[in-house]
Fold this protein.
Amino acid sequence: MEITKHLYVYIYVYGGPEEMSRRAAETFAETAERKIRAKGSFNVALSGGKTPERLYALLGAEYAEKIEWGKVHIFWGDERCVPPDSPESNYRMASKALLSKIDIPDKNVHRIRGEDEPMSAALAYEEEVRRHFGLKAGEAPVFDMVLLGLGRDGHTLSIFPATKALFEEERLVIDNYVEKLKAHRVTMTLKAVNNASNALFLVSGREKAVILREVLKGTEAIYPAQMVRPGKLVWLIDKDAASGL
Ligand code: 6PG
């Protein structure tokens, strides 16, 4: 039986990265409050890279007392296979900007162990996700929110074009070798992300204008970012990134 999944896509354009980040922080806080009120918890997967850093800093500076962080569980959508104190680490970036500024129990911070061998780190993380969400075999988690970025090649998370992560249909988390970067990554798969209630892309800067136009206007899904189909998909972009639309 063909189940038609309606995808609701919302695109909001802001004057610059600061305004975009502030709106993202408000959206994060509003969603957290709504989910905590409804079910007592907020399960969110953070993205890496540079774009979300300001969002995390705002959450750490202005929302430290406004969100019930003890009811928030923080995961990562992907991680570089580096130690947690590496400048490359997505965990390190979020820890400096956000985790070090809020009162969140260690057990609520679900770090991908980038320092471990990639395959075992991926297997361990998948087990942690399954355990947290109480998943049976074959089930996918329902994240309340997944934060995402967009690479200039159309990748998101660490699902890069023409890498095995793109075709993974069973696993929730896999190790993914990225030839162009000559680097291993651990990433959630589309199976894990597409079951989320909300996904929030943050895209900023003129250098993303071309790929953003291709992703948003493309008639067929040829980029990984176009294969993200959660319950509700929101793009928060700034004017420079939107200049090609
Ligand atoms: C990562 C991210 C990746 C990122 C994009 C955009 O680990 O790098 O998960 O998917 O979101 O590469 O990165 P920027 O925000 O730095 O442009």
